[in-house]
What does this fold into?
Amino acid sequence: MSDEAWSGRGLRTFVRLTWGLLLLGGWAAASPAVDFNRDIRPILSDKCFACHGPDAKARKGDLRLDVREDALAVIDLESPEQSELLARVLSKDADEVMPPKETHKAVTSAEADLLKRWVAAGAEYLDHWSFLPVNRPEVPQSTSKWARNSIDSFVLRRLDRDGARPSPLAGRRALLRRVTLDLTGLPPTPDESEAFLNDPEPDGAAYERVVDRLLRSPGYGEHMAVQWLDAARYADSDGYESDPLRTMWPWRDWVVKAFNENMPYDRFVIEQLAGDLLENPGMLQLLATGFNRNHRLNNEGGILPEEWLVEYICDRAETTATVFLGLTWGCARCHDHKYDPVTQADYYGLFAYFHNVPESGRAVGSRDAHPMLEVSRLEDIERLEQLNARYAPLKKELDRIGGSAGFAAAYQRWEKGLDAATLKKLPGNLARTAVAKWNATQKKAARAYFLNNLHSGAADLRKSMRPMERELTALKRSGAKVMIMTEMETPRDTFILNRGVYNQPTTKVAMATPASLPPMSPDLPNNRLGLAKWLMSPDNPLTARVAVNRFWERYFGVGLVKTQEDFGSQGEPPSHPDLLDHLASEFMDSGWDVKALQKRIVMSATYCQSSAGTPESYAADPENRLLSRGPRLRLPANVIRDQALFVAGLMVDQVGGPPVKPYQPEGLWKEIIKGRVEYRRDSGAKLYRRSLYTLWRRAVKPPLMMLLDSNERDTCNVNQKRTNTPLQALLLLNDVTFVEAARGLGARMIREGGRNAGDRIDFGMRVCVGRPATEKERAILGAELTSSLGRFEKNPTAAALLISSGESGRGAGLNHAELAAYTELARVLLNLDETMTKQ
Amino acid sequence: MNPIEEHARLLSRREFMAGASLRLGTAAMAGLLANDGVAAESAGLRRDAIGGVEGIRRFAPRAKRVIFLFQSGGPSQLDLYDHKPGLRAQFQKDLPDSVRMGQRLTGFTKDQKSLPIAPSKYDFPQCGQSGARVTELLPHIGGVADEICFIRSIHSEAINHDPARTLIQTGSTQAGRPSMGTWVSYGLGSEGSDLPAFMVLNSYGSCKRTPQPVNVRLWGSGFLPSQYQGVKLQSVGDPILYVSNPPGVDRASQRRSLDAISKMNELNAAQFADPEIHSRVRQYEMAFRMQASVPDLLDIDDEPEETFKLYGGNAKQRGTYAANCLLARRMAERGVRFIQLYHVGWDHHQNIPRDLPLMCGDIDQATAGLIVDLKRRGMLDDTLIVWGGEFGRTVFSQGRLTRDVYGRDHHPRCFTMWLAGGGIRPGMTYGETDDFSYNVAKDPVHIHDLQATVLRLLGIEHTQLTYRFQGREYRLTDIHGRVPKAILA
It folds into this structure.
């Protein structure tokens, strides 16, 4: 039974292996030589390292195979075929064979052959590819007319090697829709399409003008922010138990602003990790550190604060490792990493950098989770800072007066002389208590009242302070209290925790970067700021590669390294290693210019290719890893909704501010979080904001977003899921969001689309998919329209019901049956595969 | 023309690799057709005819499906199943240090001056042939005790609700892993063609004092493709979100719209050749079928009056635990693979005698009714029922203590859960606790062991149902799990 049962697994491994080999043919020169990183490390890592790898505690038989000197114990360089390593792998004896049968990790014959050849060739080791310095590979010479920039030269070389060819460039219409969706999260308008189509400039120049325009639009920052918010596990609630709401949204606005102002990526990272430790940090830099406070917080009764403090700090360390280094750090919380050179000491060394925040871990929820910062709306922060700067010395002077002997005497006189009538006018509970019975708090309040309102020595001062106070209050009210990072004067001690358990400390460790990566420069302070600068230093082999890979994934659906979250030895090596390094080094050399990188990618012919493949090409390379065609991907959740609002003419394009509560099915919060806050949906403009601003409550995430594979944002997760399910169909067909959008689009088709049905259908197609309808399509859609119109003319009640969905009104002045029929037609358009796909 | 047949000939390579049969609806629901973009999946994992991982069953399955009756909040084992008559003599005495052995307590009681013993005030009649002791508060469950295997030695390390529930549902106290139902539907696919493989039902108990939320991530798919996540039936509005047509659209016109969408998509597919487009067409067809199958599932008017006698009158009222038990049976009949119920309100810190009877009243008859009903229909043999909460409660009282008023804090070190049906040895009690129901005395069963057992009864060796994420093969039981063979029939 078991052999048969396991054939599935065997095949899976085999397919992965052969596919990997096929893909990675271009890793080194196209020679049959065995390449350690390409051919051997994946085998050793997957099959051997769990017992013979970096984790000393798990090591069996005192043998490690991740270090050459140790591995030579079982490799015979003199007579390679006699090597114990090969004998054990090839053994037919169930007691002898490695890996042991029960691990179900048997080495295949193809793998055994690679191992044999590798041992015969001297069993050379190389450091894991991602730990080696970023190369500056020479751009391959290319005479191709197809190529537009350096990206294409690398892609072409890889295609040539596989005997494959790139696709022709996509037409202007398709290209404009693709790039507009990719850079702004919204489709182009028909006017924009026409303008581009009729631009007399040559393709390259006309296209560049479009790209520059898109990179300048505020939608660019809003759209770029989403991926970062996912990685940073940004949400509007705490995530445990009753899941109280939090106000981290000013931090979200900071991210949008940073992308729109094209903040260099190194500054972007340093400010988020350690803005508080910069010299004289401004409010924006303090706000940026909210990145490390986005983790969940447990407000459950009866928790032990010391336990949860550890959880929060682990979350920060693991998020940092995933987002910036692409390493699976969590593995080393309990033991040395089984596959990568990351020890448990490394884990707690990184942990220590985040352990010095004056926070308690107590169950107070985010409303009072120190340290916090009160900020205004971002656009007013400069004003707020100025006011604060002017206000502070005045306040100091007032305090000085309040502490002076002269004031004390004056106060005493006043207090003694208080009569019943004056007493009654005092604020708060002062008026209700006889002076003699005032407690300490009341006395303090009385002194403050006297100082602020009556003491003549402070009167002028108070007069100048009052308007400032009013303005400060108003500014702060427009913003929110945000959790940020600050550093305690005396750092907490950090210990390695036995099996990662909070109350089992063992060895004390200091703040330290991972030992197997290049060390931190001695010029840097060994604290969070030093850590951030170390991450961004040019000799860090991971940061730039991980960053460009994540940006690449936005456009092509799969990174050059497919495993975004794992650049370690269990991750998948890059499909185009030289291209990855080229982009990484160029990114660093440009001063980490984010917009320039996006532009480089979207200007490439690789990106501009047509995505129309053949059944054979889709079958041979379903994920387009060879990049022989343009990207064809279902749009992300937020873009699907935003596009619907946009084509309906409903979208309210307004940047920033508190989260909003658009349509959501009745009772969802109630069923999950009974008796607590209810979902009171917003009305008016707030229903039509970009999905970026939809309130993200972790215990009950917006179902629309979740059904369309939005990131959950509980913990750091950099993988984008993309599924295709019947529940998505129900959502897009039936949810009020999309039905209302269909009515909006229907009304636009009638009003803006021209007189006859054909023109209106064309208009609808232009709006939704960026091109006019073909004749066949016009026939299908026309028949649908006629049939709906007939039905609604016969059934005015149904028409009235359909066009009443949502809040935005029935389209004044339009015939109900006609509007209903166009609404039905628009519903078809919004549900087209082409509409929800960039192609 | 049936669009399903129309598209069957256009099977993509992925589906070909997956060995898909023509039962496309089934496969679609089990997530077969998804382009999930995850390494292990796209590397050619073989799928069997109903969308499961081919060859994943290493044992003859004893159960085809699971109904997990989760009692959220932590029911008191001391007042329900773990009979300790000796404690009556220990009333108000301090819990001996030799028993507690310095084990940690929650923030509720760690600063309490004493830990006075609170014996249960309830009787525990012997039930059935097996003579199991079941509280007087659960007479119906006592009446079917001979179908049940009680495990008194379940233990967990999580001491707070959220992590404890997350552990029992996902195998880890931390968020981010797939739910048990997700693992099962991922591994085994779906038996029905028109309903999701993993469905969730939620009810709130009559004890309203502690309505802790059950976070949606408990039935989330974690790092597994999201089509395997649980689909929750709502008790208000659309039972499955967005399953109803928009106002003014009837089934015939929805059909016409779908036809237009399909035709348009076909034209696009002719140009782009992406198999995702055909997949989308099939998902829309499946959605259309669900728009009929969901109302059919919920329409309990076809149930005879006898059904409501069995489950209790509450079963007529949408959203109650009893109604959910009845729906669970209807789902089981329609091929739903994993049926997850949550009943909320068992967190009785303050006053067990006031709160516990309310909850028992909610669940007693319906739970027993479900067992009897399944047995009558011959379905108990291949349906595994699991009953239990995220932890038990302490022998010492939290707060005020009299013979009739006592509360209990969280206690993960030992508590009782029970299993029935599908491959479980009926009429037995497994595991023992010490005289204080404080520590496991014999045959401990950890949450991971329970999870391994559930998978085993479905025919899966728990170490083999894995998924590669972040460079390693993850599984429901993490790196643990052991099946207590004695409880298998």
Notes: Residues 1-31 of chain A have pLDDT under 50 and may be disordered. Chain A touches chain B through 129 residues (CB under 8 Å). The CA atoms of residues 617 and 660 of chain A lie 44 Å apart.
